[in-house]
Amino acid sequence: MPLDIYTHETSEINMTDANSSLIHLTDVELTLSSDAGDVEILRGIDLDVGSGETVGIVGPSGSGKTSLLMILAGLERATKGSVRVGGIAFDGKSEDELARVRGEQIGIVFQDFHLIPNMTALENVALPLELSGGNDPFKRAEEALVEVGLGHRITHYPGQLSGGEQQRVALARALAPRPALILADEPTGNLDVETGEKIMDLMFGVHERNDTTLVLVTHEMRLADKCARRISIADGKIVADDHNTVEAAD
Length: 250
Prior knowledge:
It contains eight helices and ten strands. It is an alpha/beta fold. Helix 3 (121-131) runs parallel beside helix 5 (163-175), helix 4 packs across helix 5 and helix 5 (163-175) runs parallel beside helix 6.
């Protein structure tokens, strides 16, 4: 599965209708082949997420939650069903077209940081912007690093940064294109509890300041409970979709 999140050109995404869903999935299925035969990963997924929502996706290991996130990112193709993000139908799109959508509208944060070791923090964040032909890539990269509290570490290499700092660089890289949607797959999985809390505070702070949509996959219920909405997946199906009134009251 390619992790080409670095290429974008002008996309056709239409965000003019504030009342429309940013994410719209209809009867999505994912079946993968194995030596033992076909394996159903996702089954009959229907999902709508509005612009500006925060959604936590939870479920046991192997339930399909990360696969769902990969489909939302266009990094995995649904076997069946319809996938639309920002008004763009993913069905039938080429890899280059999906890369353009990711580059402009989707920021992705993984559990593993995926930083290039021989590049500074600034260069790691600027690289996707440079490859996409964006304006002022280093200026925008520096602004993103300042936003995540790393303005004083822009010349440091990944090996000179703590795990939490490396995840901040990865978050800055996701934020630099100013995406409408942030997808995070276990973003605190390689961090201690205290550092993980700081990373999540940063992500939710970005959401509040920029009104981005945040979809978070996690096995930690306390993190999912920070979201206004919690979706539970089991055996490839959505089994619960709850609004978190406690979070909303805060």
